[in-house]
Structure to design on (612 residues):
């Protein structure tokens, strides 16, 4: 049940209506692996940082069972940096700065022990980096999931579609699903995405929950209605990490277990937005998670029979 | 378990990306009573139309157990008329024409047999008409629910708040909940609305489902993801009709039963949008409803235990 995460480990500077941060640690790979570390004792990560990246963060990841042998540290280079500002409704954000730095020429080297990973979560990165990782895996994994974003649809649609055809689960948000397929209705968009290759597609709708589709089944997971969304950064990655962590830990890829995984992913994401960056994730306990998942259950369960 | 609906019986002319209609029968009272007629054998309606209103529609209502003794027919006057146009996303519409006609001086007379109604659904109307009906009921009903819209918040907020304080359930959409309370987060908005008097508040989020709140509980019902929303007119009223029809039929106002009622309301609304106006509602069978409700159950149920 070995889990491999591929994704950026980076610096973010975030401004929301509740405040702003200096450079803090962020990146899809960070959020994914932190979230999945609550489910799996050991996992691997492939990423790249510059020599400006704090060693303490890598130690923190190691202490949570995240093996960083595949995380390259580029001497004399700078870590990927993103800065953004959220507006009042928290659904829209402006990117203020993007400095690719070490990501610009990232060659995702896959260490030998990683090459037989059974569960692979490809965080949002260039589709060619994502497909390179898949090509470097020597044994077909049980499940490969990938995230992406509209940026790649704008500049590398062919590459993206090739990579999508190689994975089992595509995780996108509603706007990305629409842009990818040219279809407005999400059921139709999902159908088109399944025709591109994946067996499952998850369409995230932010505060409106998430939809999981297979060719013959459909599942809807609510988002927890929150009084305050403090900082949405990383919520989608945290969802993916909870989802894949749960699947890898339970080693069961039936639709019923994917449904549970979506609920665990949603629960993890609901923590992420409560504080800036990874702050809340770093404090969460197993009991918090159990209680949060129970809340999701209470929120959406009903009994048709009186 | 007597059910009373108060609401407009009207003409609509609708334009959607799928086509346009001439004047067809619409109105909150029409949709509510039609939807609830699938749950209760007999019910009463208070409304007003002009002498231009087709007798055939009243016969159709009567044949479905909707007693129209409280539906006033104003000789020589014209029925309320609304015309609107939906845009591509179907979430926004422009009102092209509003002719109040008979609604302008509507005095909601409550026939004697209606005065002991146990369940009352007040469709969207001026808050003073809604409160007049409540004042004319001689015995406190088991449950009064009301719908409203932002128009009344703009021009009659005090009247509206007074009426809200007299009911048990307020049914609004997300934008209305925000305007009514000045709160963006729906959990906070719901809390504020409960403080205005109602024991329950339902916040409809269109294609994103509906939330039901009591002081201590919260329930989320998904909307059925549809490939095509043909015409959203009346969906909210149909939801309210299914909700109240189910409650009146089961005569049980526990939170667990309100959850079921929200699911039945959502199921009825999912039919409404499949064709123009009331067309689809008029064809629906009991078997259709059972299958649709099962779909909602399949869509949102999961089992946390493996």
């Amino acid at each position: 049940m070995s889990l491999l995460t591929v994704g950026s480990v980076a610096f973010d500077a975030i401004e929301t209506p509740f405040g702003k941060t200096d450079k803090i640690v962020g990146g899809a790979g960070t959020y994914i692996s932190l979230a999945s570390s609550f489910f799996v004792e050991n996992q691997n990560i492939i990423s790249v940082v510059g020599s400006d990246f704090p060693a303490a963060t890598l130690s923190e990841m190691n202490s949570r069972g995240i093996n960083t042998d595949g995380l390259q540290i580029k001497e004399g280079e700078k870590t990927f940096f993103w800065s953004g500002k959220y507006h009042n409704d928290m659904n829209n954000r402006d990117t203020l700065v993007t400095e690719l730095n070490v990501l610009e020429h990232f060659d995702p080297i896959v260490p030998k022990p990683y090459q037989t990973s059974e569960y692979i979560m490809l965080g949002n990165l260039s589709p060619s980096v994502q497909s390179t990782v898949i090509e470097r895996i020597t044994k077909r994994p049980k499940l490969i999931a990938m995230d992406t974003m509209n940026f790649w649809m704008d500049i590398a649609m062919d590459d993206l579609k090739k990579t999508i055809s190689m994975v089992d689960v595509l995780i996108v948000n509603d706007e990305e699903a629409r842009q990818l397929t040219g279809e407005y209705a999400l059921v139709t968009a999902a159908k088109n995405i399944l025709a591109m290759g994946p067996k499952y597609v998850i369409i995230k709708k932010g505060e409106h929950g998430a939809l999981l589709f297979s060719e013959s089944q459909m599942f809807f997971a609510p988002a927890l209605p929150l009084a305050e969304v403090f900082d949405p950064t990383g919520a989608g990655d945290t969802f993916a990490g909870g989802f894949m962590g749960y699947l890898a830990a339970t080693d069961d890829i039936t639709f019923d277990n994917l449904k549970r995984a979506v609920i665990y992913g949603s629960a993890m994401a609901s923590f992420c937005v409560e504080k800036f960056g990874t702050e809340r994730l770093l404090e969460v306990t197993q009991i918090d998670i159990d209680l949060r998942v129970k809340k999701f259950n209470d929120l959406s369960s009903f009994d048709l029979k009186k």
Q: What stands out?
A: The first strand of chain A starts at residue 3 and ends at 6. The domain at 3-300 of chain A is CATH 3.40.1190.20 (UDP-N-acetylmuramoyl-L-alanine:D-glutamate ligase). Chain A has one domain: 3-300.
